[in-house]
Each structure stands twice: as C-alpha cells, then as structure tokens.
Write a structure and sequence with these properties.
With about 290 residues, this protein is an all-alpha fold. The chain is about 65% helix and about 0% strand. It contains 14 helices and no strands. The longest helix is centred in the first third of the chain and has 24 residues.
Length: about 290
C-alpha cells in the first residue's frame, strides 16, 4: 500500500466518521451511512444485514439514504483490500465473529470498502483531499497623485514658421494640422488627441502638434501619456514659446509623481519674467 493510498484511505475514513456522527446526533438509533454502504458487501453476516434491512423498512430517512447508496456505481470491490480490512476488524473483535458488529468496527469496515470501490472504479479518479488555499494579502494600488493646481487649455497659435517646411510644402501640412486642431478649438480633447496622435506619426518634428497633443491629454487627465509629447515640444519650440510648454510639462510631471523634476522646472519659470511666472511661483509654493 503506497503512501498516497494510505492518505486517501485516512481522509475518506475521517469524512465517513464525521458523517456518521452527524447522523447519530440527528436520529438516535439509526445506523450510520457507512453501514448502508457496507450492506452491499459480502463480508457482513446475514443477521446483521437482516437487522439493517428491518430498520430501513421502518425509517423514512434511512430508506431514502439507502436508495441513494444503491444508485451509486461503485464497481467491484478489491478482494485483497477487503480481506485486509476485514481481518483487521475481526481480529480486534476476538472470538465473537457473529452478531451485530460494533459501531467502530462497522465504520472502519465500511470506510475501507468505500476506498477500494471508489479507488478501483474504471475511469474514475481517487477521492481528492481538498484544502483551502492560504489567504493572500490584497494587492494595493499605488496612491493617486493629487493635482495641486488647475490648468486651462491655451488658445491655438500655429505660425507657418513652426512647421519647419519649405513654402511649397507648407500649405498641405498646415491644412492637415489645422484640421487636426478643430476638435481642440471646440473643447473636444478626446477628438483632438486622436487626430493629433495620427498627425505626429507623420510629422514627428511638428512642435505645435506635439504641444497640443500633450495639452489635450492633460485635459483628459492622462498625465502619463502627456509627458512624451510635451518633452518633445519643449525641445522643438522656439525660445519665446518654450515657457508655455515648460508650464504644462511641469504640470504633467507633478501629476505623475515626478516631484523633483516638476519643482525644478517651476522654480526656473518663477525666476524668469513671463506670462507663466506668477502661476509657476504659486505652484512651486504649493509643492513645498
């Protein structure tokens, strides 16, 4: 007998004993369900089987349980296992091998037979010992970064010189950019973000497109997605437009937890004269 067989037999034996205790507590005098299973085996004496049948005939609960047991397709018992278990039970009972088996012996006998029948049933798996998995600690989401100031979308300004193209190529490029910015003008930042994203795929060096794409994503509270186009806009825009891009980039950095980068950018804007100086100074103070 392998360790696995022993473990399965012990687990099933314990379960059958538990069920027997529950039945005895509910209906005193009724046989445990293990005996109803064992009555199908040839190892029970005829008088024991007769007493069981007599009780079942007069007990509705046992009659229903016996009917359920009779419907089980348990297959054929393993004679070696049956003999081993019967010998263990009968050997401990001494010379008295007739009459009603003791409750403990009957439980042990029935559980052993159940193991052999269920374990050897063709195409069936052995009874499984079910264990509850250890509770896992809940996965906590990183805390959201609180926006320390509000922003408004800047008006659209698209000078022809910002396109960085020759005069012959300016008209179609400018027309495409103006078309991509139409949703932005009406406050449809989701629409402008979608159009501008397609535009920058074809014109990655368009500073204006990168800038308004970043601002559109900021207005949609997509600060992480706004970082890359705003960083590119800071590098591409002319000096007079750069503070505007720096302000919105600092906002994206603060809202994505890049505190030191945002603080340094705001302090630089606060130290220089310009339209965003007062806003930058107030924001830098809010971050202290």
């Amino acid at each position: 007998m392998t360790d696995r067989d022993s473990a399965v037999e012990a687990a099933l034996d314990a379960e059958l004993r538990r069920e027997g205790e529950m039945l005895r507590a509910a209906r005193a005098g009724c046989p445990p369900p293990d005996l109803l299973l064992a009555r199908r085996s040839e190892v029970l004496d005829e008088d024991v089987r007769a007493r069981l049948d007599s009780h079942i005939a007069g007990c509705d609960a046992c009659r229903r349980m016996a009917a359920d047991v009779d419907l089980l397709d348990l297959g054929a018992a393993d004679s070696d296992v049956e003999t081993r278990i019967a010998g263990r039970v009968m050997g401990s009972a001494g010379p008295r091998r007739t009459g009603m088996l003791s409750i403990a012996a009957a439980l042990l006998l029935a559980s052993g037979l159940a193991v052999s029948w269920w374990y050897l049933r063709p195409g069936a798996e052995p009874p499984r010992i079910v264990t509850q998995p250890a509770p896992q600690p809940p996965v906590s989401e990183p805390p959201a970064v609180v926006a320390l100031w509000t922003i408004t979308a800047p008006a659209v300004r698209v000078p022809l010189s910002s396109l960085g193209a020759t005069r012959s190529a300016e008209a179609p490029a400018l027309s495409s950019l103006v078309e991509a910015l139409e949703p932005y003008r009406s406050g449809d930042y989701a629409g402008s973000a979608e159009r501008l994203a397609r535009f920058v795929e074809a014109q990655p060096d368009s500073a204006e497109a990168q800038f308004y794409l970043g601002v559109s994503r900021l207005m949609l509270e997509q600060a992480q997605a706004a970082l890359s186009p705003l960083e590119r806009a800071v590098r591409l825009l002319p000096a007079d437009r750069r503070p505007e891009a720096e302000w919105y980039l600092a906002t994206a950095e603060q809202r994505t937890g890049r505190t030191e980068a945002a603080r340094a950018r705001l302090q630089a804007l606060c130290a220089a004269a310009g339209p965003y100086q007062s806003s930058a100074c107030a924001a830098a103070t809010a971050m202290q």
